[in-house]
Amino acid sequence: MVMRKLGFRDTVGVNSKPCSSLVKRGDIYALPLKEDSFDFVFSTAMIDGVKVPARMVLEMERVLKEGRVGVVLRRVAGNVVPARDVMKAAAPVSSYLKFSDVVDVRTVNCTVMVIFKKRFLGGLEQVLKKEKVSAAPLLLAAE
Known about the structure:
By secondary structure, this protein is α/β, with parallel strands linked by helices. The protein contains four helices and seven strands; from the N terminus they run H-E-E-E-H-E-H-E-E-H-E. The chain has a single domain (12-140), classed as Vaccinia Virus protein VP39 (Rossmann fold), CATH 3.40.50. It has a seven-stranded mixed sheet. The chain is globular. Pfam families: Methyltransf_11.
């Protein structure tokens, strides 16, 4: 797996069809992983290509540890992405996040990377999270 070659020793992938011992069989809408268990989450699935993007983002957020970072990808049309289109591409991802904030937005070719950081939760947010009021029931592959 590429992440192991890059130095991430505890890497887990989730795919509907596992292709190695590092990949768990699972669903991007209900990850078979514990809450607050990962330092970094990344989806290879373009958010525009999944059926329920908000649920995918919420699952990524659920398994991410507080204070840690995740990345969601969006495809944009054209070879050069104007700055205004980059921010427009980030807006839907930002609206799906319940316990995180967008901290950076970058482009690579025709792809916008929306980088978010999970907040340290306390007070009302922690109560809502425990009661699962706002939360939906790594590496994620496309459906």
